[in-house]
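Support reply, case 0932

Customer input (verbatim):
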Amino acid sequence: MAGRDYIPKTSEEVEAAFITAFEQLVRAGISYDAGDHAQVLVVSTLVYLFVHDHGRSAVSLLTQAGHKNSIRYRDTGTPLNPKNLLTEHPLASVQIVQNAEGQYFQYLPVRDTTAAFIGDKEGRFGTWWEAHVLRDPKRREFSRKNLVFFFRNKMGGAHASEGYDRLETVAAAAFADLAQGDAGGWIMATGQSRFRPEYGVQFATVRQIGWELEQTLRRHCSNLVGDRPLPLPSAPRMIPVR
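Our regenerated output:
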């Protein structure tokens, strides 16, 4: 870059950052599945890190590795149906759970368990990123990009904003409602009481987006991540000095 003090990263640095971020994405997903739903903030930040480009100040890991626009992204969703009067969340399912305290329900990322019913395909980045994957009770629709930006930039993934503002076609009020409730809108009635899940469908949806990206990287960036198992903690090691 002319006129600036600038040193580009080496290919070794890019590869190391790519692998580290991939391992973090896998760990965050496993932790989410084990019940730590706050990990959706980490998932959103890592998805952003892999795919979002903004000039030279933010160059995605996939762009740095030369793969972003040459690979296809795993898509486990289906288009939202404008004739459906209910909320829609094709990347998340509803599960009824019975325990000693009674019955409750929760939202789960579909991963590949229901692929035979919802479809399992691949597409170009822009199509995958911009596709609407959630419609709330007020019929407002959110894309993968909208949801990742929301959790990363507004809810504390990387930034905690003072409020909510419009993003593309999604109004600020839609994001405020997303922060304060459940975009799935489902209610369980038990006797005189009514309940909704503590973690709305938007959480499971972003977890599924992270899972889709993880599978995409395993399939199309095997030269970097291969079939890497989750690494075990290791003791600090010494690096030879040249």
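We compared this against your earlier run and they match. Two observations from our side: The mean pLDDT is 87. The longest helix spans residues 11-33. Please reopen the case if you see a mismatch on your end.
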